[in-house]
Automatic annotation (TrEMBL):
Keywords: Acyltransferase, Transferase
Keyword Acyltransferase: yes
Keyword Transferase: yes
Record's protein name: GNAT family N-acetyltransferase
Stored Pfam families: Acetyltransf_1
Stored CDD domains: NAT_SF
Taxonomic source organism: Brevibacillus invocatus
Gene3D superfamilies according to UniProt: 3.40.630.30
GO molecular function: acyltransferase activity, transferring groups other than amino-acyl groups
N-acetyltransferase domain span: 2-150
Listed InterPro entries: Acyl_CoA_acyltransferase, Bact_Acetyltransf, GNAT_dom
Length: 150
């Protein structure tokens, strides 16, 4: 059974999963990860969700407020390889969206990449649509930006 928990960026479970995510991203994008890496840092005010299978953290995601009122950016979505295919990422994302709405937000945006077809498929399935590239991703060819009204 999967349990979803809200927490903060200083969670040791979150930080272990983020390390795994970063290793995965370096494998997928060895040439551009140096450009991406600075934008993947998570501030302490971010809202973090963890997925647990039994008592083991197997997935994570978070969001941060953007400079635009009512808009959050989804960040650091990851599910351990051995836990994939169980709908965990969908549960994490739905919890992040619900939390963002509780805080008065009306829109979510995110950035993913061309070498993450499973992520693009998940976001599309949950109603995200491709939007113009924003911020640090504007000139990154491998970048895909998506957004959704909450």
């Amino acid at each position: 059974m999967i349990t979803i928990r809200r927490t903060s960026p200083d969670s040791s479970d979150f930080n272990k999963l983020v390390e795994m995510l970063d290793k995965d991203l370096w494998k997928r994008y060895p040439q551009t990860q140096q450009q991406y890496a600075p934008h993947n840092r998570i501030a302490l005010e971010a809202s973090v969700v963890l997925a647990y299978e039994a008592d083991r953290a197997v997935g994570c995601g978070c969001y941060r407020q953007t400079d635009d009122p009512g808009i959050v950016e989804i960040k650091r979505m990851f599910v351990m390889e051995e836990a994939r295919g169980k709908g965990i990422a969908k549960q994490i994302l739905k919890e992040l969206e619900a939390w963002a709405v509780e805080e008065g937000n009306t829109e979510a945006k995110l950035e993913t990449g061309t070498r993450q077809p499973e992520a693009v498929a998940l976001y599309t399935q949950l109603g995200y649509k491709e939007i113009s590239k924003y911020g640090p991703y504007v000139d990154l060819e491998e970048s895909i930006c998506m957004g959704k009204k909450l």
